[in-house]
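RETRY 2/3 - previous attempt timed out on the joint model. Re-submitting the same 802-residue input unchanged.
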Amino acid sequence: MIAAVVVDVPSGSVNKTFDYKVPPGLENWAEPGMRVIVPFGPRKLQGFILAVKQSSSVKGIKNITEILDPLPVLTPELIDLGQWLAENTLSFYITAYQAMLPAAMKATYEKFFTVLRPEMLSSEVSVLFSASGELSLNEVTKNHVHLLKKLQELTKTGVLDVVYKVKDKANKKKVKFVSLGNKTEAEELLNQNGKRAEKQKAVISELLSRPPGEYSLQEILHETGASLSSVQSLCKKGAVYIEEKEVYRDPYQGRNIKQTEPLPLTENQQNAITPVLDSIENNEHQTILVHGVTGSGKTEIYLQSIQSVLDKGKEAIVLVPEISLTPQMVNRFKGRFGSSVAVLHSALSIGEKYDEWRKILRKEVSVVVGARSAVFAPFENLGIVIIDEEHESSYKQEDHPRYHARDVAIWRGKYHSCPIVLGSATPALETYARAQKGRYQLAELSSRVHSNPMPEVTIVDMRDELKKGNRSMFSNELMEKLKAGIEKGEQSVLFLNRRGYASFILCRDCGYVAQCPHCDISLTYHKRYGELKCHYCGYKEITPSACPSCSSEHIRFFGTGTQKVEEELAKVLPEARVIRMDVDTTSKKGSHEKLLTSFGEGEADILLGTQMIAKGLDFPKVTLVGVLAADTMLHLPDFRASEKTFQLLTQVSGRAGRHELEGKVIVQGYDVEHYSIQLASQHDYLSFYNHEMKTRKLHQYPPFYYLGLLTFSHLELMQVVEASEKAASFLSKRLSPDSLLLGPVTSPIARVKDRYRYQVMIKYKNEPELRNWFEEIIAHFQKDKSIKDLQITGELNAQTLM
Ligand SMILES: Nc1ncnc2c1ncn2[C@@H]1O[C@H](COP(=O)(O)OP(=O)(O)OP(=O)(O)O)[C@@H](O)[C@H]1O
Ligand SMILES: [Zn+2]
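RETRY 2/3 succeeded.
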């Protein structure tokens, strides 16, 4: 039996499968989708079996060394998907497959010495080896460095061998359980006297008082105050059993989640859910855009769609943006579907993620709620994929493999003949355009569930406030409304748009701005640590007390951070109880949830925060939303700047007046005439869409054109210039007349980590060969020995130009 294996070497020359023999003992075991260890040149590497066959045309093939999985970790579907993914994102097969699995399963190797000829070992060396004849290199370098040279010699002369083993990053969690052993033995113990026996008796009585079964040893120790050794001696006497078992780490353990029943749908919801239910009923793939204003009850539509998928014995994936994967959101799914829900997001530890993922693989759950990569959940009977806030840029991975979760979902929807539901109050332009063209079905929810109107929005031009003599960061109207809210016992959300609003250090005398010495970007000020930090490479320095350029002392922190807003608030509204949510206050695990819970329980009047409070929150008492600096994102060098501004303003505004109380929104900024701000304040998605589509058409941007992007980076400027010029001229000879070639030009961020960056952009409608040309260019420079260390990334459908 022969296995075709892709190995863990991300390089163009090995981006294919290699044939290996399956040793006789393993023939009944080896299956496509399993991870294996194979010899590769002098190394042993991890790989995936993609196919098995009877014979190979390759001569002298080697044996598989080890099979790592008892069952395949990639389903046949995922094996196909990985191939498609690699080809469409210009990445290596191995990278695509690894992206589908939890990080814990990615290979890290530990080297071991093993003994081939024990009789040749001196006693000094032989004692180091474990009973199984292994000694890890790690152990040697830590504790027996002086023997390293000797061990290497022994390896050269064939006394020892070196093997590579994959280290399981997520050591399975084991827990000790205790249960009652021999009952007469135990009861007899209760009658004994003696001080030491007291604790043992307590353990016995505790176990006798409970229904027969296994109880966590830790819990029993805690309950009885007994020590581990006293339970161990009970165990020796046969009165109890101690057993160690593998358990799942459950991040949601002990949480009290209220079960919810399906709500009777409103007429609007009924209309919107119909195409979804039809698609489920008919086992027919459809992509359905649920375009519903904020608070229109999209989540209830998701929940009831999932219910009907589960009723058919199928499985569901729900994707939510990382940032809104809040406990509030998770509880809505756990509250309806209980323990059949697995949750995957980046706040979980590597081990927790691995455990959640194994529940999916073992078919112990049928619903997954997770961020982007949950789209690869290894379900085999998928009945629906729901993408909430489908316009969010976090659904695009900006690293290899550069996939968009929406594309992957639709691929899987076709494979399983099931619906893909895209939900948003502000769909991406691309998505809405497809819905208008009929490629997606459109379901509209134009009003809120509770029959209150959309909140009224007032736009305040802060230049006018300044003219009126108001120098604070809050307009008069916002102040009044905040005060009124506190008096009425209602709550407010204050949103500070941080993106594009760097807090930088500026010299008021010479205009010097502190810049990263390795990247063309200004350093961000972190008050808490008194340091300046580069968000691209992590470079840090102490905040200077005088200007490094002109020595002036008037060097000051500029820009507005949430901390500054909080300080200001304390001055002008001392009576307000404020909860601040930003990266600083939520860095500790669980703090995010704590802050939101206490806000939900009315322990604060104002929730102040950044992007992380813009979405998904549903608090009935919030009647006022204030937006500080609505316009900052408009000036980013990004053709989606207007779209992102519109989406964000709509989302934040949507937090106000979601239930019985009426909502009010105040939007502050300097460039407030901009159509994205004006139309967001009128809750007018369609006009925004039409306006923005005209702009995109005029400037030949998506969705009218795809953006192909080749980015070159190198430590030397001349190298990137030359290489990108070569690539541009190669492409210009081949592109169809309808396509546009732009560049080479410097990237919007011209240097990152000391590497200069240049890019070539292609705007195209139909260019079936583009992928091959990109691959050719990349392969060409990989082979070219005269340019070392040139990095090229290619994208066929770039989302940003950064
Ligand atoms: N049919 C219904 N009857 C009563 N209440 C409902 C119904 N459907 C939804 N709701 C409630 O209405 C509120 C708003 O719904 P939901 O949060 O799902 O809106 P949404 O469309 O997801 O909004 P957003 O886009 O702002 O997140 C929630 O508190 C939800 O429980
Ligand atoms: Zn930097």
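Residues 109-166 form one domain. Closing ticket.
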